[in-house]
UniProtKB/TrEMBL annotation:
It comes from the Bacteria. This is Cryptochrome/photolyase family protein. SUPFAM superfamilies: Cryptochrome/photolyase FAD-binding domain. PANTHER family: SLR1343 PROTEIN. It comes from Christiangramia sediminis. InterPro entries: Crypto/Photolyase_FAD-like_sf, PhrB-like, Rossmann-like_a/b/a_fold, UV-DNA_repair_photolyase.
């Protein structure tokens, strides 16, 4: 049958079995569309990243004699809508069958199902051959359980896929989890190697995006574009990570620093989420490298990394498919405030937020602890509506695709799911930020003061949050200690805290 196969922008799996089959009757289609660029305001580097990675992928297929139809964003015949483009092609070229890979996003899943129902030709879906788990694997794994604890799922994945195991039974290094050893502050040493840019010129694509009038945020140095957009690039980021960064990955996983955007983080999320590279090959490479360098690298660094990909990443995907579409509307803490304007321009006197947001706007990147304990923490402490928080996270990061963005943002960071992902809210006062970073040293505010004009806003906001959400969290075992500290505060002090927090929440522009 004459077959049309759709490849979405995050389905750039060079290794997919599709490309190993007999190709005579097969045509691939890829589309740059306003449908995908406009559902949220994306960072300019993200739109460039997707378009260039898609173009490179299509070129790669053509060079291997596959037939490819590619819609560029400004092509006249591009209707900018998936359904219209597909239907038009199918009729024009008399395709007899339509095939697609299962999308990772609920929105596209629904749209494709609807499209298929409306076609008068046969259609079939295929696995993306990317993840360790199927969409419903987590749901089946936790069936009948009250809580879906990531740790148990992760251990089982380790066993099932025989990763970092001894005789498929016991964890290498004698422990499943080395998280506690992974909590160091970075104080200028060990040195962080810096040569990891690609320095690509993406001016042509930038101009096309501008011509198409796609609304974006953030900045780009178009002569020096720095993200991997081909499989070769992705592999080089992976090699770079193994050789230069793995050695200290775990130790400094939670560290924050004004001079360092990436610290020892891998920057692999975009390559993984677009499927340029698979989680299995990332884990295999890291473990192979570790086995060859056991005298230098400690197991705790490697386990910390494997946990992120085999544990958190697969877990979040499972939660997404289990909980959608309701997840997208969840707001269990009933938070209704708007996101402060400084999230869009970094114009704030709070040094930690200034740095985390500036990084994000300049690089379409912030590492996990900046996302969780700076921007996420502040949004939650100021009781921001999770819809607003989601929109920001979904737009600003190069790796933001809904299945992994929303579970991290609404779930892990904002506790809007009422505790499905996190057993307690990730909130902290300034003292945690001070412990893990050098932000407070040069801040306008004093991290040691709880109230008063110069006091660190995180301090009053933290106690105010606990106070205002008491009914929800008072029985949470993991928060007992914090509530007993709150209960010891004198009424007068508590009133001052509430007053200061109210001002911060109501007048964000002054901070
Ligand atoms: P590294 O620190 O080097 O980690 C290695 C890899 O592990 C990452 O590339 C990623 O694939 C995976 N990983 C690590 N933590 C997580 C996690 N919590 N969930 C899923 N995978 C994880 N990650 C995204 O890929 N897309 C998002 O849109 C996204 N939004 C987030 C929003 C918030 C509020 C928070 C707190 C986290 C978010 N994360 C998201 C998770 C994590 O912050 C990023 O994956 C990570 O910062 C990417 O940088 P890296 O590749 O250098 O990661
Ligand atoms: Fe952030 Fe407070 Fe430290 Fe300033 S003092 S950097 S606001 S935690």
């Amino acid at each position: 049958l004459k077959t049309l196969r759709l490849i979405l922008g995050d389905q750039l799996n060079y290794q997919h079995s599709w490309f190993k089959e007999e190709q005579e009757n097969i045509t691939y289609v890829m589309m740059e569309m306003h449908q995908e660029t406009d559902y949220v305001v994306h960072h300019i580097q993200k739109v460039i990243g997707f378009f260039s990675a898609m173009r490179n992928f299509s070129k790669h297929l053509e060079e291997r004699d596959h037939q490819v139809i590619y819609f560029k964003i400004n092509d006249d015949h591009n209707t900018q809508d998936l359904e219209k483009n597909l239907k038009h092609l199918i009729t024009k070229d008399n395709f007899e069958k339509f095939e697609f890979q299962l999308p990772d996003e609920y929105r596209l899943d629904e749209q494709l199902n609807k499209i298929c129902k409306g076609l008068d030709i046969e259609s079939e879906s295929f696995d993306t051959e990317h993840f360790f788990t199927r969409r419903d694997e987590l749901e089946n794994y936790f069936k009948g359980k009250k809580q879906m604890v990531m740790e148990y799922f992760y251990r089982d994945m380790r066993k099932k896929h025989d990763i970092l195991m001894v005789n498929t039974k016991d964890p290498q290094g004698g422990k499943w989890n080395f998280d506690k050893s992974n909590r160091k502050k970075w104080k200028g040493t060990p040195e962080i190697p810096h040569e990891r840019g690609f320095r690509k010129n993406v001016i042509d694509i930038l101009e096309e995006i501008q011509k198409a009038e796609i609304k974006t945020m953030g900045t780009v140095n178009a002569e020096n574009y720095n993200w991997p957009t081909s499989r070769e690039d992705a592999l080089s980021v992976l090699n770079y990570f193994c050789k230069n960064l793995l050695l200290h990955f775990g130790d400094f996983q939670d560290a924050l620093h004004t001079d360092e955007t990436y610290l020892f983080h891998s920057r692999l999320s975009f390559s993984l989420n677009t499927k340029l590279i698979s989680p299995r090959e990332v884990i295999d490479s890291v473990i192979d490298y570790y086995h060859d360098h056991k005298e230098e690298i400690d197991i705790s660094q490697v386990e910390g990394f494997v946990r992120q990909i085999l544990g958190w990443r697969e877990y979040m995907r499972g939660i997404y498919w289990k909980e959608m579409p309701g997840y997208k509307r969840s707001n269990k803490l009933d938070n209704q405030n708007t996101l402060p304007a400084f999230y869009w321009n970094a114009d704030t006197k709070m040094n930690c937020l200034h740095h985390a947001i500036k990084n994000s706007l300049e690089n379409a990147y912030a590492h996990h602890i900046q996302r969780l304990m700076i921007t996420g923490n502040y949004a939650l402490l100021t009781e921001t509506n999770p819809d607003e928080v989601d929109k920001w996270y979904l737009g600003i990061y190069i790796d933001a695709i809904e299945w992994v963005e929303i579970t991290n943002t609404r779930g892990m960071s904002q506790f809007a799911d009422g505790g499905i992902v996190a057993t307690k809210p990730y909130v902290s006062s300034g003292s945690y930020i001070n412990k893990m970073s050098n932000y407070c040293k040069d801040c306008h505010y004093n991290v040691n003061q709880k109230t008063g004009e110069n006091s660190c806003p995180f301090n009053s906001l933290y106690w105010n949050f606990l106070d205002s959400k008491r009914e929800i969290f008072r029985d949470n075992q993991r928060m007992k200690m914090m509530y007993s500290l709150l209960d010891k505060k004198a009424a007068e002090e508590l009133e001052e805290i509430r007053e200061r927090a109210r001002t911060i929440i109501q007048q964000p522009a002054d901070f």
